[in-house]
Please model this.
Amino acid sequence: MVNLSKISSKGKFMFLAYDHGLEHGPKDFTIATMDPNYILDIAVKGKFNAVILQKGIAEKYYSPYKNKIPLIVKLNGKTNLVDGEPYSAPLCTVDEAIKLGAKGVGYTVYVGSKFESIMFKEFSRVTSEAHSKNIPVIAWMYPRGSAVSGKENSKEILAYSARVGLELGGDILKMHYAGNVNDMRWVVKNAGRAKVVISGGLKEREEDFLKELKDAIKAGCAGIAVGRNVWQAKDPLHISGEIRKIILE
Ligand code: FBP
Model:
């Protein structure tokens, strides 16, 4: 198995995601959070295990942080401007990511989309290439598309998506929460030896967000890859500390 030690602490993962400019556009940002330096500072001071960036941001902002916070480069993406079946196009190669200093690569797979077979093929190529270079692959295993519409957070569909992530070679699977500990446990079981991290989602009240994280950890999740609930918080370092306590203590 690929070595995960460069992007983990005690086998646990705390990742700060910041690929929202592409996925959602500027609506997620304020003047402060629009600046990648603001996010990179939170990643360092909040003691995250890695920060997740698209290649353009990594190229222009990451070099002063190289020895301070490991980088995961997101290799594919899409905007939310286009309707219809989702497809996340490959935008960066594993080699380019390594040149940028990446210690891991990220990839979204929309399970249930009409385009899933294309994404499976492209993702499989990424896992083979990354593993040949000992680079771990973090897979956003998101059920999405008309075939799974309304069932995106169901136990069965999330468990199926986790299984697909394992079978296609993902090392860490970024999954939505299934809504309760028992259902989430089933999702984690289906991921087998792949690790599951929970995704953050829309900004919530701090206590609701932390309760869900606690439940996810109870269900066997190995950490979190979070964006908005940290960098949209009034005190990002405070909530980072709370996350850290839940995951590592
Ligand atoms: P959040 O914690 O802010 O939800 O970030 C996680 C994430 O997966 C990002 O990496 C990505 O940009 C975004 O959510 C995708 O959101 P959506 O589910 O709207 O496609």
